[in-house]
Amino acid sequence: MSSLDAFALDTLVQLDAASLRRRLAATERRNGVMTRRAGRDLVSFSCNDYLGLSHDPRVIAAATEALARYGTGAGASRLVTGNHPPLIALEKRLAAHKGKEAALVFGSGYLANLGIVSGLVGAGDLILVDALGHSCLFAGAKLSGAETMRFRHNSLAHLATLLDKHRGKAQRAMILTERVFSMDGDRAPLDAILALAEAHDAWVLVDDAHGLGVIEPGTRAPLEMGTLSKTLGSYGGYLCASRPVIDLLTCRARSFIYTTGLPPASAAAALAALDIVEAEPERAARPLALARRFTARLGLPEAQSPIVPIVVGEVETALALSAALEARGFLVVAIRPPTVPPGTARLRIAFSAAHGEAQVDGLAEAVADLRPGVTP
């Protein structure tokens, strides 16, 4: 056995012992919320397709038309020949939706944050990241070479302390946070963060992956990043910002420059979905309303977003509860470290406009039966 295989097998044994090994499960999504696994139909509460638009006939038709006209792939980097018309149209609409001068579409949300952060700051600069920020924010910070510090989750006092102590030693400073936190479902105090940033001449990047179209954004940050793969039911990532910033990142964001452009069908699908988001506000409001119906039935704090965590603590407990819910017909995947901090394994419940009230109530009843005294 090679040393590489020996290393892999030994590490897998350790992951198994800690119940932290990941395995792929074949999952057939049949519409916005119904899935099929291991021969069983399940109601999924683990999908980020918040408006069910990935199966909307209008979105599918737009993707199909682009597929027939432009082919299956972009063919090259966008700076070579991959800057096809659907991408240009999508960027114009995203910028307008966010109230910005321009936008830049990346291959994914992860790639976007890698390129944005490392393209704007570097050695001699300071990055402050919310401790519960997404992995890609930390990856972008590490790639940049800037000094990086975590501030306690949503703690304005800690953020202010770090700015007071370290901002003066850095040439540039950037604050990274999320509008809606992906594993906890709570929101950043963005207005206050922006005020602190202005007082210390720091730039704010807000990751809006889980807020676009389903949470009223309020004040916009200078750097509004998000994804096309959740509310918009497609695939890709983007940044909306001023024209000079977008033009600079077109020249400096390595995860943009050195990768093939987004397929035309993905861009066309996202564009059609954005039309629906803007035209159907009652649909956009439904996921949060359903999440609040769920928290009210279980006596939990009112949901701030379509994401509701049920924190159970130990990994084995979360896996067992997920399996028990699956036996009752609900797919609610357990979230384990390192995605969440040790001791906070949980069920992450995501609500969609495609869910029915009876499905939400059925899940609430099942959770109450299986986990008395649930801890949000």
Automatic annotation (TrEMBL):
A GO MF term: 8-amino-7-oxononanoate synthase activity
UniProt-listed Pfam families = Aminotran_1_2 (PF00155)
A GO biological process this protein is involved in? biotin biosynthetic process
Domain of life of the organism in this record? Bacteria
Any keyword Ubl conjugation?
no
Kindly give the InterPro entries that the UniProt entry links to this protein: Aminotransferase_I/II_large (IPR004839), AON_synthase_class-II (IPR050087), PyrdxlP-dep_Trfase (IPR015424), PyrdxlP-dep_Trfase_major (IPR015421), PyrdxlP-dep_Trfase_small (IPR015422)
**Per its Swiss-Prot or TrEMBL entry, what cofactor is needed?**
pyridoxal 5'-phosphate
Per UniProt, residues of the Aminotransferase class I/classII large domain are 41-367
Q: Which UniProt keywords apply?
A: Pyridoxal phosphate, Transferase
The name of this protein is 8-amino-7-oxononanoate synthase
